[in-house]
Amino acid sequence: MKYKRIPDETVRRLPVYLRGLMFLHEDGQRNISSSKLADFIGVHSWQIRKDFSYFGEFGVRGVGYEVDKLVHEIKGILRLNVVQKAALVGTGHLGTAILSYPGFGVYGFDVTAAFDNNPKKIGKKIKDVTIVNVSRIDILRKKNITLGIIAVPRSVAQETAHALVKAGVMGILNFSPCYIIVPKKVKVITIDIAGYLARMPYYTPMEQKK
């Protein structure tokens, strides 16, 4: 299914809606209004209605949204209605935590490959995933894995991205605190955890000492 050009902010909110709806489904909720969904996930109801309007009419006036149906629709939009395999490069403290994180499964992701250049780590298993020498990253093409996660030092992030792209990866989640250059056809999302934390003191100023 193809869609017209959708604002990036809308796409960023869709997984938030999906997560909330899946929690509601687990709690036995069958239908929900946009206002109650907004209260549950912490956004404005008009924003929910506007975001959904890009993809069609999902709700019924006076009834709201059917939770199961809306989960199905959003998964289809995000292409999460099939298992999405991903590969991780870098199995240090952060990489190990990523491999062990159960939250990916909520959205249907499965990190099935892991790479490192440390001889002491190669061959070991983390959560049933065997760590492979990064020199063999080209096997991703044979495994039909098109999503990559970078958790390597900044100094090797760019060459890692290049290797992933060469191996057929079309989407990269970058945890290295730097900007990486890839072809336009490849989507990169960079998450700088320390950078996000650095914003917090601005919103939570310490009380000035008297």
Task: Summarize this entry quickly.
The chain has 210 residues and is of the alpha/beta class.
Task: Describe, in plain words, how this protein is organized in 3D.
The protein is an alpha/beta fold. The protein has two domains: 8-77, Arc Repressor Mutant, subunit A (Orthogonal Bundle), CATH 1.10.10; 84-192, NAD(P)-binding Rossmann-like Domain (Rossmann fold, 3-Layer(aba) Sandwich), CATH 3.40.50.720. The protein has eight helices and ten strands. Strands 6-7-5-4-8-9-10 form a seven-stranded mixed beta sheet. A three-stranded antiparallel beta sheet has the order 1-3-2. Strand 8 (147-150), helix 7 and strand 9 (171-174) form a beta-alpha-beta unit. Helix 2 (34-41) packs across helix 3. The longest helix is centred in the first third of the chain and has 19 residues, at 8-26. It is globular and about 60 Å long.
Sequence of secondary-structure elements: HEHHEEHEHEEEHEHEEH
Ranges where pLDDT stays below 50 over 5 or more residues in a row are none
Number of domains: 2
Oligomeric status of the shown chains?
Answer: single chain
Q: What's the arrangement of strands in the largest beta sheet? A: 6-7-5-4-8-9-10
The named CATH superfamily of the largest domain = NAD(P)-binding Rossmann-like Domain
What CATH calls the topology of the largest domain is Rossmann fold
- Class of secondary structure makeup: alpha/beta
Average predicted local confidence, pLDDT: 92
The CATH architecture of the largest domain would be: 3-Layer(aba) Sandwich
| Biggest sheet overview | 7 strands, mixed
Q: How many beta-strand runs?
A: 10
